[in-house]
Amino acid sequence: MGKIIAIANQKGGVGKTTTSVNLAASLGVLEKKVLLIDADPQANASSGLGIDVDQVEIGTYQLLEHTASAEECIIKTNSPNVDIIPAHIDLVAIEIELVDKDEREYMLKKAITHLKSSYDYILIDCAPSLGLLTLNALTAADSVIIPIQCEYFALEGLGKLLNTVKSVQKIHNPELDIEGMLLTMFDQRLRLSNQVVEEVQKHFSDMVFDTIIQRNVRLGEAPSYGESIIKYDVSSKGATNYLSLAKEMINKNI
């Protein structure tokens, strides 16, 4: 039985999409069957895996509206063992459209739970907000990965996210677990980066992944070619980091 993992943080630019795309690709290379759900209207996870988002006719929007089945929304990607349910800019409208619906927080859960028997991991790339889209992802997920940027404002807003996770656990999804906090954009030359790592490890100890994602130019270049870092430059530091994270996660879930 597969596991549904949301990748969430309401702060933008912390490495959510980079993590979603490259963790999915790394798990695929390690022979795990992966589905990536792009739940961000910016659709960067979709374009990052080579999908032309302007051509997307059925995706996350239709999935949440329940006007298309999950199977109809799934597209194969150029990464081995990785499928995707892509997003389109029309996803922006979903929060307004779901507002009047009954059980609006459960729309994603109802649409994808049955897919757990077809995939080892289902990853959800969340939007940088704590709105209805992210709430749907957390309600559908078994666990959540929280990327934390190794920068000055890293811990700002983390309390708010953890409170959201707690309230989802209380009201919608008592089974929701924290898969781990992932330190991203680490630069060992900067004292500040090292301080953030120390602070996070001190406060959250066991909840923090051992793997740290280092700042890496190749990681930033890969999406413009519609490729994961594994496909773009498997010998890069970024690829090594994400393969290490994938292995750590697999071992954690044995």
Task: Present the secondary structure layout.
Layout: E1 3-7, H1 16-29, E2 34-39, H2 44-48, H3 60-65, H4 70-73, E3 75-76, E4 82-85, H5 94-98, H6 107-112, E5 121-126, H7 132-140, E6 143-149, H8 158-171, E7 177-184, H9 191-204, H10 217-221, H11 229-232, H12 237-252
Parallel strand pairs: 1-5, 1-6, 2-4, 2-5, 6-7
Antiparallel strand pairs: 3-4
Helix pairs in contact: 1-12
Architecture overview:
Helix 8 links the parallel strand 6 and strand 7. The radius of gyration is 17 Å and the shape is globular. The termini are close together. It has helices at 16-29, 44-48, 60-65, 70-73, 94-98, 107-112, 132-140, 158-171, 191-204, 217-221, 229-232, 237-252, and strands at residues 3-7, 34-39, 75-76, 82-85, 121-126, 143-149, 177-184. The protein has a seven-stranded mixed beta sheet with strand order 3-4-2-5-1-6-7, with helices on both faces. The chain has 254 residues and is an alpha/beta fold.
- The count of strands amounts to 7
Give average pLDDT, whole number. 93
Main sheet record: 7 strands, mixed
Whole-angstrom Rg: 17 Å
In the predicted model, the low-confidence regions spanning at least 5 consecutive residues are none
Strand content: 5-15%
| Order of strands across the main sheet | 3-4-2-5-1-6-7
Task: Estimate percent helicity.
Answer: 40-55%
The outline comes out as globular
Order of helices and strands: EHEHHHEEHHEHEHEHHHH
Distance between the termini: 12 Å
